[in-house]
Amino acid sequence: MHHQTFTLTTHDNVPVHVNHWSSGATPRAVVMLAHGMGEHSGRYADFGQALAENGIDLYALDQRGHGLTAQHDIVGHFAHHGGWQRVQDDLHQLRQLIHHQHHHTPLFLFGHSMGSYIAQAYLLTHSAGLHGVVLSGSNYQPVSLYRAARLIARFEGWRQGPLGRSALIEWLSFGSFNKAFKPNRTPFDWLSRDAAQVDAYIADPLCGFRCTNQLWIDLLGGLQEITPISQLARIDARLPILVIGGECDPVSAGKRQKDLACALRHAGLRHVQLNLYPDARHELLHETNRADVTFFLIDWLNQTLAASRSHPTKETA
Q1: β-strand 56-61 against 15-22: which pairing, if any?
Q2: pLDDT per position as a tens digit, 293-312
Q3: Rounded to 5 degrees, what are φ and ψ at 246?
Q4: How far, in Å, CA of 221 to CA of 167, rounded?
Q5: Domains of the chain
Q6: At what angle do helices 213-226 and 114-126 cross, to 10 degrees?
Q7: Helix (H, G, I), strand (E, B) or coil at 214
Q8: Matching Pfam families, A to Z (predicted)?
């Protein structure tokens, strides 16, 4: 397995840090990964190694305001203006680079948590040519809830400024997540049943930070955008989508991942699969059953690749 890092300089001159894991040979497929809030792409090294051992490359970028990308900017902050569009543009620029380096190689998109929302927004305009999408640790709630939450974020932005970091927003978004796992050992027990993985997250200086009010305004506006069925109907109906998560994930309470799969099907997508793991929490790739999850994901990628040979889609950059 080969691992390298590089910097992708975006169109607005932000140096985005990218991790690339490969077998060193020509890959059978490529996965492009968008990570979640308050973490970074380096945490997916084990997944990258497993994919590489199966002939699949993984490219994972540190989102704006996250990981090593944040060393060039403000931690927990997308941008002063247009942040939601900029994180989508970063994904597309990485896709163009992958397309240049692996011109005829099937490409999959993997989005976890916040990354799953960015992935869905990206799909509204760039789903053509992708061979499949994995939405991990995702969610689906009414637009009215996101609208109300964004009003609170905008108020906090007015009260503290766009770069303020609101304790109220953090409490409203994450405050209840640990309640189901009392007695709590740490504030992040909701991430995984694996205590060592939770401890590694807490010890990682690039994880667990509070995001800016402006990032929350951007994110909640994005959730309003991607939630309506009429918007999801813009995604290529032939695109295979896997919704995967833990039944005890407090982000979705399990049920709302089912709601997301139903919404995608209702929007006309013909190849939507749902796979939920009993007792698992938010981060499946850092859970006690991560080996089984990884095996399932690789099997899904292989099955989707086999099916795509019979029903190819137009490749675009």
Answers
A1: antiparallel
A2: 999 999 999 999 999 765 54
A3: -100, 140
A4: 20
A5: 2-141+225-310 (3.40.50.1820)
A6: 50
A7: helix
A8: Hydrolase_4 (PF12146)
